[in-house]
């Protein structure tokens, strides 16, 4: 694997850098990054439409469905520049999750109906997988879909559904048979969130934000044409989606951006007459995280290079998920140690000009929400079981 940039690669990097710096302006950044503005969805959609108009919205999609046709190096450069400037990644549920399932397993009518609106961000999607009794053991899900004529009648509950309050559609795993092995009785349905019988209840997390929800289904009619692939075969499609989701959770570019920000603040914070960055213990911890992040970056590049040659991510997606979330949590722990007691001050209760206030607020929020990173997408304990089975043959 050659990671040296060619002249063409450097020209592409300059193009990406210029586009980001010109198009992700201050006003858009403020709207996207401040979810308390009440303008989060419209801001994200506005940014994604800029990427769509540029033809850069779906780097991972095949060209025939609207992908960029970029080389693996170009995709890497794009992510590096996005992370360097602190630009948020595209919301994954349509572009990185259900979109690939539809163009891989869906029929032509489904591709024509859904893919263009995913690319243009005219439809906002959410993911209906986890249930109160089925998280990492997803095959135990009980939300049912019974076929009546030309419709499935869906009843049940999903939980931890990110951005369901904004969603136009939800892709759901539902149980369509109890007579066979539980993994084989699951189907993959696309459900219009405006359907009668769908309701959404907010879940406010420890960081004070509203991104998660419960979604309830009460006798919801779903046309049979919204079934992806074959009935009772949804587990196959779900596994393909989870592999892509777990690989994306590595968030190497974002972790590198957060680490660089941490260094800058550690250099500015003074303790005992010297910057905290000069403290040997802090330096050692920072160095350990940076070394692990570098190793993760090369592991991700190897996985992407394999995919570029026609392969599919396998157990390496579990490696990426485990180490990526552990690094993210380690960075957030260092940030919280850096701000010390300022991390306990809630916004509005401290003079905005006080030392460390702005960074302290972000450090506290990132730390709190980051506790969930090793759980969502399949807990890290389950990912170790996946590795043991697929790599070690245990």
Sheet with the most strands, sense and barrel status: 4 strands, mixed
Helix-residue proportion:
40-55%
Structural class: alpha+beta
CATH class of the largest domain: Mainly Alpha
User: Could you tell me the radius of gyration in angstroms?
Assistant: 22 Å
* CATH architectural grouping of the largest domain: Up-down Bundle
Uncertain regions spanning at least 5 consecutive residues: none
> How many runs of DSSP E, i.e. beta strands?
10
Query: How many helices does DSSP assign?
Result: 12
What's the domain count?
3
Fraction of residues in β-strands: 5-15%
CATH topology of the largest domain: Butyryl-CoA Dehydrogenase, subunit A, domain 3
Strand order of the largest sheet: 1-4-5-8
What's the topology here?
Layout: H1 7-23, H2 26-33, H3 40-54, H4 72-84, H5 92-105, H6 108-119, E1 125-128, E2 144-148, E3 151-158, E4 169-175, E5 186-192, E6 198-203, E7 212-223, E8 227-228, H7 234-248, H8 252-268, E9 270-271, E10 274-275, H9 280-308, H10 316-339, H11 357-370, H12 380-390
Parallel strand pairs: 1-4
Antiparallel strand pairs: 2-3, 3-7, 4-5, 5-8, 6-7, 9-10
Summary, kept brief:
By secondary structure, this protein is α+β, with helices and mostly antiparallel strands. Helices cover 48% and strands 14% of the residues. It folds into three domains: 7-90, no CATH class; 125-232, Beta Barrel (Butyryl-CoA Dehydrogenase, subunit A, domain 2); 249-390, Butyryl-CoA Dehydrogenase, subunit A, domain 3 (Up-down Bundle), CATH 1.20.140.
């Amino acid at each position: 694997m050659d990671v040296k940039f060619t002249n063409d690669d450097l020209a592409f990097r300059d193009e990406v850098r210029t586009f980001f710096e010109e198009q992700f302006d201050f006003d858009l950044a403020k709207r996207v990054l401040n979810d308390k503005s009440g303008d989060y969805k419209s801001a994200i959609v506005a940014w994604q439409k800029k990427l769509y108009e540029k033809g850069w919205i779906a780097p991972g999609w095949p060209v025939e469905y609207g992908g960029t046709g970029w080389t693996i190096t170009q995709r890497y450069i794009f992510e590096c520049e996005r992370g360097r400037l602190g630009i948020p990644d595209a919301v994954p549920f349509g572009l990185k999750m259900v979109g690939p399932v539809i163009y891989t397993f869906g029929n032509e009518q489904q591709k024509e109906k859904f893919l263009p609106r995913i690319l243009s961000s005219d439809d906002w999607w959410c993911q209906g997988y986890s249930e109160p009794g089925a998280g990492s053991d997803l095959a135990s899900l009980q939300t049912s879909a019974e076929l009546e004529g030309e419709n499935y009648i869906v009843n049940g509950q999903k939980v931890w559904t990110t951005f369901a309050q904004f969603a136009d559609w939800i892709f759901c795993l539902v149980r369509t048979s109890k007579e066979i092995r539980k993994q084989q009785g699951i189907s993959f349905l696309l459900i219009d969130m405006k359907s009668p019988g769908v309701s959404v209840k907010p879940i406010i997390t420890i960081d004070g934000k509203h991104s998660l929800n419960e979604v309830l289904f009460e006798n919801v009619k779903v046309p049979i044409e919204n079934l992806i692939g074959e009935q009772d075969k949804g587990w196959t499609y779900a596994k393909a989606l989870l592999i892509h989701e777990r690989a994306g959770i590595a968030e190497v570019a974002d972790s590198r951006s957060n680490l660089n920000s941490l260094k800058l603040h550690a250099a500015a914070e003074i303790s005992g007459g010297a910057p905290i960055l000069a403290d040997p213990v802090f330096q050692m911890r920072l160095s350990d995280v940076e070394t692990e992040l570098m190793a993760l970056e090369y592991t991700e590049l190897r996985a992407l290079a394999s995919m570029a040659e026609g392969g599919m991510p396998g157990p390496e997606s579990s490696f990426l998920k485990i180490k990526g979330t552990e690094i993210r949590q380690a960075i957030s722990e260092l940030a919280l140690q850096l701000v010390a007691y300022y991390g306990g001050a809630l916004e509005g209760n401290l003079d905005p000009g006080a030392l460390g206030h702005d960074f302290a607020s972000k450090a506290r929020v990132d730390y709190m929400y980051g506790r969930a990173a090793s759980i969502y997408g399949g807990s890290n304990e389950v990912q170790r079981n996946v590795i043991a089975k697929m790599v070690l043959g245990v």
